[in-house]
Design goal:
This protein is an alpha+beta fold. It has a domain of 67 residues: Alpha-Beta Plaits (2-Layer Sandwich). It is built from three helices and four strands. The protein has a four-stranded antiparallel sheet. Helix 1 packs antiparallel against helix 2. The N terminus is likely disordered.
């Protein structure tokens, strides 16, 4: 029996206005530049690994909570591992392509 995708289909659109969106993207760029180790895009999943420290863990946790509210068209999961933080974003390829901060 096939596995059914139970995600709610939402439009691919950010709910932030211009100023808030620019600020959010700035936060993403900063954490990506300072802590990202690796990025892997495979089909319906974008995974990024980050060096783990208190600053990165706090910032990524806050960003994931915020993104779940404004960009609910994809799934957001942050896993805390011993030395790394692993962010997994799931959605179809068009949805993942809309996340231009993650390049």
């Amino acid at each position: 029996m096939p596995l059914v995708d139970r995600r709610v289909q939402l439009p691919i659109a950010c709910t932030l206005d211009g100023g808030a969106a620019k600020q959010r993207v700035g936060r993403w760029v900063a954490i990506l530049d300072s802590h990202r180790i690796d990025r892997q895009l495979t089909g319906d999943s974008l995974s990024m690994r980050f060096r783990r420290d208190a600053e990165a863990e706090k910032e990524l946790t806050e960003l994931v909570v915020a993104e779940r509210e404004c960009c609910g068209f994809v799934g957001w999961q942050l896993d805390v591992e011993t030395d790394e933080l692993v962010l997994r974003i799931t959605g179809d390829p068009a949805e993942l392509a809309a996340l231009n901060f993650a390049d």
